[in-house]
């Protein structure tokens, strides 16, 4: 992982400068063990042509970090680097790396630091003219150090001395074969367990006084972790951020078009209609909300949803309610009186609208343009409205929109249909369709797996706003841990895999929620294994995820259903299963073999317990009725299994009961 | 936070979700013990509600809320912490202002907003609302139209709200069609391990101890018995864990068995010279002896109590050990087997009149044997050899395996067939016990007389009314009434042993 980080560091500008002599020697020593065949080729390939897919992916991440690196290296070059605030974690770390060795200059034992260095410089070595520079560099840094933190030497040395040997060992082993699984795991472990060691050295010049260093007071760490978790969870509520999306992405265009349209309605009093089409979770609703929020004048917003307003009557009633609420509350009381003077129909509609019977209410829609503010009607799940008989609501709305003339006394009216069904337009009746403007704005979820990775990075790296002193410390650790996590090729693969299964961002959100929620003070940083757990629970779940958790009698019955099916009886009664289970238990306990004083056969199970277990299975819907069974004794009601053979097989694998597995695999009798 | 041994992963995950920004829709799946989990979730919610970040929650049960209106009102009342009072006509929240939130889902959404505003006023902060629905699988049966709105509730109400459904059915089972609802955030509850079960039992014991500790009279929940209870719990869990994993069930068994288990210790204490001394923890020897005596009854308790053939109190009373068990020499005491569990039906069977018993056996035979076999099985005067039933145990080479009728359920038979078989049974097994009737000279004439009595027909009707026979034809039909047998093999065997009828010989395909 850290290898990954390394490449960006060797941007040419930097290369000339760093790599002091002392490190060099160390470098050589350290470099010998890790032959890193994977890294070098990758790097080489990557630089010239970022064409192939996987490379591409990597590129994203690296370009992400590369930007920072650049900033860093720039900062480095300038003597002001310490003072530059925006130079974030990386810069600081860089500085540390450099300063580290000089602190330890004589005592080369600070393996940890050296090691990171080794990697970086290790790659650069061939090209770098190291020797001459080396003396200069340390001096520089030490000066800077001196300026910054006089305490530094005292702080660093103890930490390093204590930790160095072990850490070095740990660090080094995982590094070389970063591509292989085991090493991944290994490298994860130290990272998670000791949040401080790696970041600590980086912080050398940091603001935090001596106390903070390594053993982050557990309380603080917990607090910071909690804050970080909450922050991420908050961000996850609205994962898609239009501002971050690149220019020209479909959602951005849609948003632009929609706000143009809305501003036409609000500012010029136009009647507009449009449809927002896009797959689920692609941010349709949030685009609408954002566009409305951005408007210069807040219109009356009527929100209808096809899932709740299942008939036009309900919809009209809801319109009346919302209208009464929004206009009555905010400003309409005086305005309404005006309305009375100007227009005699409107007020009668307004005052009566809450109590008026639904049948009279279609007239209400024609009132909309006459209100004091422009109106925006949002129809969520437009396709469902199109299924209402005669589509009268849609007809009324769109007809009113069409007859809405800009420049007259009336205010504007916009109807926005939101749907995920692409053939919605064809569902509209001819008379409705002809009144619809035909504007369709499309939104799209992220279209490339890179976008997902970027999104993941953005969400995980979201910063806590709080200005607690310890927070800075934490932030650095967290950013670097997230960086490490995202650079892990396995993580990328897992995310890409998920992406190829579903492009729904909400799945990603669930994965990340699960990942973040499981972070605990003992393992505060995201790891691959956490991601895998998240994937197992959140993504494309098996139909019976918990079958293995069922107690023994239930599993017995399920196996019996499989055997029953094998004999050509896919429907079965409890009696049939019971006989099978009973015979099996009998035959398995027939052999008088004892182990540790107990029989090795299957445990005895009485009929009543089995019957209760059977009822449990029915209520858990692992078994379903075949037909209605009035007046039938419950033992003889016919059922069929819903849990398939495969499900049961998987459950048995998890459960790992030898007897049951044997029975399951044995030929049916 | 209250301790929930074994539920730490759930409580940890849930509370960090709830204290942060919870996803709008959470689905908790627990196939084993959703009742216990509901309690745990509820206590997590309570803990979170008392935390600095305001969180208001409603905990409703979908079994109780079987109508949309009940659901709406319950949720709103709980969120607003409104207690309907009998004295003012059980007005629901907002009812006093003349608002009605329970008309339909729209009204409910408005009600939620109103509640939120109300809470904002009292809390001064924009809080989090949580609606927790347990037994959510019932929503599908009772109010399926609400599943989609509930799943999208946060979006629809535009509030900071999250809905938690808990069910023992997986979400796939009632996911609405056409992508109506977004997929929830899934949480799975793993079953408890043995240690957690024991810990749960112990914590219950401690609670009961605390309750009963004010009295001086030692009770079965006395602190001195804590160690003994721990041992007891371990063994109960060991015995039951294979069969049941629901902590509530295991707790039920333990609660039924413990009074009997601890009673000898109390007896010994009361019998001692000085009953006023505080109760001492029993010695190791006593403990071993108790365990040896009671261990066999644990499984028996499970087998009776888990299917609820009996309730715990009754079972504990009927399986109480003899008084002063410990004062007897060990050689005289036998382990309690706990045998007793006949199904309750069998007790009533003994009270049936003799003819009814014969009728039931005949009905069982008629329902189980194929009609074609009757002549072979019951025909008289044929060769004894031919009477033998054909036993064909060989599995068929191919095709669908043939199953015996006894596992497929009773066949329907006409009443005439029942009477014919009854006649055969009576002729074989009852004829010798009748009083002499010299006027019947033809063989079988007497039996014919017996089976055609009105008494037999009224008995059939009575049996059908009590469900031991099941009518297969409509009741108003006079001719060609058909029936099915309503008793199990076990009951039939029990009856035939009472009457000395060799049931297995008469079955075409015995077990």
UniProtKB/TrEMBL annotation, chain A:
Every Orc1-like AAA ATPase domain range: 256-403
Ranges for domain Origin recognition complex subunit 4 C-terminal: 471-652
A Gene Ontology molecular function term of the record: DNA replication origin binding
Record keyword Nucleus present: yes
Composition bias type Basic and acidic residues, residue spans: 71-80
Gene3D superfamilies tied to this protein: P-loop containing nucleotide triphosphate hydrolases
Protein name (Swiss-Prot/TrEMBL): AAA domain-containing protein
Native source organism of the sequence: Mycena indigotica
Lineage: Eukaryota, Fungi, Dikarya, Basidiomycota, Agaricomycotina
UniProtKB/TrEMBL annotation, chain B:
Stretches assigned to the Origin recognition complex subunit 5 C-terminal domain: 352-507
An individual GO BP term: DNA replication initiation
Ribosomal protein found in the keyword field: no
One GO molecular-function entry: DNA replication origin binding
Subcellular location: Nucleus
Record protein name field: Origin recognition complex subunit 5
Entry coiled-coil feature ranges: none
Domain of life: Eukaryota
Residue segments, region Disordered: 320-349
Main location per the UniProt record: nucleus
Lineage: Eukaryota, Fungi, Dikarya, Basidiomycota, Agaricomycotina
Species this chain originates from: Mycena indigotica
GO cellular component: nuclear origin of replication recognition complex
């Amino acid at each position: 992982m850290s290898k990954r980080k390394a490449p960006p560091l060797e941007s040419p500008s930097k290369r000339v400068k760093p790599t002091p002599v002392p490190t060099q020697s160390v470098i050589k020593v350290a470099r010998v063990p890790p032959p890193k065949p994977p890294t070098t080729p990758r790097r080489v390939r990557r630089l010239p042509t970022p064409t192939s897919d996987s490379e591409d992916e990597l590129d994203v991440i690296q370009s992400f970090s590369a930007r920072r690196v650049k900033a860093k290296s720039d900062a480095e070059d300038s003597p002001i680097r310490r003072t530059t605030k925006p130079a974030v974690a990386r810069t600081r770390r860089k500085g540390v790396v450099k300063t580290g060795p000089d602190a330890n200059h004589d005592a080369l034992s600070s393996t940890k630091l050296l090691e990171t260095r080794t990697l970086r410089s290790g790659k650069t070595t061939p090209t770098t003219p190291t020797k001459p520079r080396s003396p200069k560099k340390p001096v520089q840094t030490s000066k800077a150090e001196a300026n910054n933190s006089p305490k530094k030497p005292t702080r660093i040395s103890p930490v390093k001395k204590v930790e160095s040997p072990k850490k070095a060992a740990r660090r080094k082993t995982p590094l070389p074969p970063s591509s292989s699984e085991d090493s991944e795991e290994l490298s994860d472990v130290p990272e998670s367990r000791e949040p401080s060691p790696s970041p600590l050295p980086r912080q050398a010049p940091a603001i935090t006084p001596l106390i903070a260093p390594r053993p982050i007071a557990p309380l603080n760490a917990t607090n910071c972790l909690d804050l970080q978790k909450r922050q991420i969870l908050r961000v996850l509520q609205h994962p898609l951020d239009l501002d971050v999306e690149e220019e020209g992405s479909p959602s951005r265009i849609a948003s632009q078009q929609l706000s143009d349209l809305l501003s036409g309605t609000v500012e010029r009093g136009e009647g507009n209609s449009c449809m927002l089409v896009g797959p689920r979770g692609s941010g349709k609703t949030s685009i609408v909300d954002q566009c409305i929020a951005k408007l210069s004048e807040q219109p009356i917003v009527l929100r209808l949803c096809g899932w709740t307003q299942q008939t036009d009557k309900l919809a009209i009633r809801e319109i009346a309610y919302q209208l009464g609420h929004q206009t009555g509350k905010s400003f309409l009381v005086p305005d309404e009186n005006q309305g009375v003077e100007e227009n005699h129909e409107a007020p009668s509609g307004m005052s009566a609208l809450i109590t008026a019977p639904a049948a009279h209410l279609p007239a209400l829609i024609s009132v909309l343009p006459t209100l004091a503010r422009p109106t925006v009607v949002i129809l969520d799940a437009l396709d469902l409205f199109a299924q209402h008989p005669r589509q009268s609501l849609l007809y009324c709305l769109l007809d009113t929109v069409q007859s809405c003339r800009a420049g007259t006394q009336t205010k504007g009216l916009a109807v926005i249909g939101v749907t995920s069904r692409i053939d919605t337009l064809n569902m509209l009746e001819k008379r409705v369709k002809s009144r619809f403007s035909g504007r369709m704005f499309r939104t799209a979820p992220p279209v490339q797996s890179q976008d997902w990775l970027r999104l993941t990075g953005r969400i995980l790296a979201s910063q806590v706003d709080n200005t607690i002193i310890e927070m800075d410390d934490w932030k650095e650790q967290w950013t670097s841990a997230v960086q490490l996590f995202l650079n892990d090729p396995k993580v990328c693969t897992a995310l890409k895999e998920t992406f190829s299964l579903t492009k729904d961002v909400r799945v990603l959100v669930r994965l990340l929620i699960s990942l973040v929620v499981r972070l605990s003070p003992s393992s505060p940083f995201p790891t691959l294994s956490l991601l895998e757990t998240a994937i197992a629970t959140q993504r494309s779940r098996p139909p019976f995820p918990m079958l293995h958790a069922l107690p023994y009698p239930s599993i017995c019955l399920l196996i019996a259903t499989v055997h029953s099916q094998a004999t050509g009886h896919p429907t079965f009664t409890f009696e049939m299963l019971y006989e099978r289970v009973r015979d099996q238990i009998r035959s398995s306990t027939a052999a008088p073999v004892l182990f540790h004083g107990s029989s090795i056969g299957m445990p005895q199970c009485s009929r009543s317990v089995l019957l209760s277990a059977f009822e449990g299975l029915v209520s858990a819907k692992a078994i379903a009725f075949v037909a209605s069974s009035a007046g039938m004794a419950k033992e003889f009601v016919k059922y069929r299994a819903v849990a398939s053979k495969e499900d049961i097989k998987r459950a048995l694998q998890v459960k790992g009961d030898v007897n049951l597995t044997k029975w399951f695999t044995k030929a049916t009798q | 936070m209250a301790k929930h041994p074994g539920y730490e992963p759930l409580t940890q995950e849930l509370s960090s979700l709830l204290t942060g920004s919870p996803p709008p829709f959470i689905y908790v799946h627990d196939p084993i013990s959703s009742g216990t989990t509901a309690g745990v979730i509820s206590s997590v919610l309570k803990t979170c509600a008392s935390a600095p970040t305001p969180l208001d929650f409603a905990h409703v049960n979908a079994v109780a809320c079987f109508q949309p209106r009940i659901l709406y009102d319950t949720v709103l009342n709980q969120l607003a912490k409104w207690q309907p009072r009998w004295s003012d006509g059980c007005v629901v929240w907002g009812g006093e202002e003349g608002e009605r939130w329970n008309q339909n889902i729209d009204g409910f959404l408005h009600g939620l907003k109103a509640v939120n505003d109300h809470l904002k006023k009292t809390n001064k902060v924009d809080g989090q609302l949580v609606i927790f629905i347990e037994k959510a699988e019932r929503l599908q049966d009772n109010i399926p139209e609400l599943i989609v709105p509930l799943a999208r509730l946060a979006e629809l109400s535009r509030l900071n709200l999250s809905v938690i459904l808990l069910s023992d059915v997986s979400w796939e089972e009632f996911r609405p069609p056409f992508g109506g609802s977004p997929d929830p955030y899934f949480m799975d509850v793993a079953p408890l391990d043995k240690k957690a079960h024991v810990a749960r039992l112990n914590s219950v014991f401690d609670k009961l101890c605390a309750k009963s500790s004010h009295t001086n009279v030692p009770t079965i929940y006395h602190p001195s018995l804590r160690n003994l209870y721990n041992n007891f719990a371990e063994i109960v869990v060991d015995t039951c864990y294979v069969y049941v994993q629901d902590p509530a069930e295991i707790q039920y068994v333990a609660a039924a068995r413990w009074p009997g288990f601890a009673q000898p210790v109390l007896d010994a204490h009361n019998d001692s010279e000085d009953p006023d001394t505080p109760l001492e923890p029993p010695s190791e020897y006593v403990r071993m002896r108790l365990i040896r005596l009671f261990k066999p009854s644990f499984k028996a308790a499970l087998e009776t109590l888990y299917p609820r053939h009996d309730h715990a109190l009754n079972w504990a009373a009927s399986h109480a050990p003899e008084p002063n068990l410990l004062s007897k020499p060990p050689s005289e005491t036998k382990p309690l087997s706990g045998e007793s569990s006949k199904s309750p039906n069998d007790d009533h069977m003994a009270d049936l009149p003799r003819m009814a018993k014969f009728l039931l056996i005949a009905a069982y035979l008629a329902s189980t044997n194929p009609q074609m076999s009757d002549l072979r099985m019951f025909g008289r005067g044929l060769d004894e050899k031919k009477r033998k039933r054909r036993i064909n145990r060989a599995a068929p080479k191919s095709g669908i395996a043939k199953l015996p009728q006894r596992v497929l359920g009773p066949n329907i038979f006409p009443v005439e067939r029942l009477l014919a078989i009854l006649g055969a049974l009576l002729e074989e097994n009852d004829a010798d016990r009748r009083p002499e009737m010299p006027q019947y000279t033809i063989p079988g004439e007497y039996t014919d007389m017996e089976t055609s009595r009105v008494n037999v027909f009224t008995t059939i009707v009575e049996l059908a009314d009590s469900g031991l026979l099941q009518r297969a034809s409509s009741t108003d039909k006079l001719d060609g009434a058909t029936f099915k047998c309503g008793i199990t093999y076990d009951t039939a065997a029990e009856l035939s042993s009472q009457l000395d009828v060799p049931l297995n010989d008469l079955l075409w395909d015995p077990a």
